[in-house]
């Protein structure tokens, strides 16, 4: 299938697209109904169940946030392909073991271990970012995003069907198998011409930022990705419980939760490439600010939803906003980052994302436990407003100089 006339970066992008698809699909297969899986492990009251669900979801990203800069530093010395293989094989093992969890504490521990090995998607972005021509960076990041969100789209639907038919453990085993497939594709089809940074060269955060002209903007992208992930993922620990409440406990809650979880992916799948190309034409700043404003407009009405159908429509619209957010952030980082430090910059970005995936679900679990599930959407609207103001100030200050 290799074509000598096709540039190597495009062949790598195709293989990594599949890897992102497998990672997105596998990881999203079980997350929407993780609380339902936990509820089978004991008779927990509402506040305890939401707390355990938030912890089980967030702990993976907490450990990921801690170790990501270490992996990024190593990637700039050894290459991105070894880091892709490390992540893929590590998640193959940890995802499979999660399916054997006998209780909630073992589940949380294994998910924490999984976080230390994760990072396939961001390393895939870093490898493509280090090779893609600058005038094609927006469309390339948009296409890579379709792999991730395409997997996130199909994962909850398939996982919800299988969980409803065969139990909540099966999706974890399928996740492990999909990561094994991603490992094989990466091993045999990704080729990297890598020049490591000199051993004597310092590799701290100060050196990584040394060649960046618009440092405020890059820092704003880190903070923005944290807030985007906090807002977007805040509903994940409680989505199946909220859907169950809206359905009054009737029907296949797992399957419907999977559909609701997947709906943003449908919109993002079709929107991301077009918005990436738009960013190449009009500049990523305008697309990012528009996406933040639109996501705030969509999140707020979720507070008032009384039916699964209305929630589904708003979740679909939030997928359009998502297509204008993280891919554009990745494009900005691609354009701003020197080649010799791109893996470190993307690892800091991954840590920021991971911290967002910790902060959002834990805040949401607290809000849902104290008030009600729908109050989570007021919290996400506030996060989006803060993000919009912060990004606008950073751009105004950095580009005014």
UniProtKB/TrEMBL annotation:
TM regions (residue ranges): 15-37, 49-67, 87-110, 144-164, 170-190, 217-243, 255-275, 287-310, 347-370, 376-395
One annotated GO molecular function: transmembrane transporter activity
Membrane topology category: Multi-pass membrane protein
Pfam families membership: MFS_1
A Gene Ontology term for the protein's cellular component: plasma membrane
Residues of the Major facilitator superfamily (MFS) profile domain: 12-399
Subcellular location: Cell membrane
Predominant cellular place of this UniProt entry's protein: membrane
UniProt entry tagged with the keyword Membrane: yes
UniProt entry keywords in alphabetical sequence: Cell membrane, Membrane, Transmembrane, Transmembrane helix, Transport
Name of the protein this chain belongs to: MFS transporter
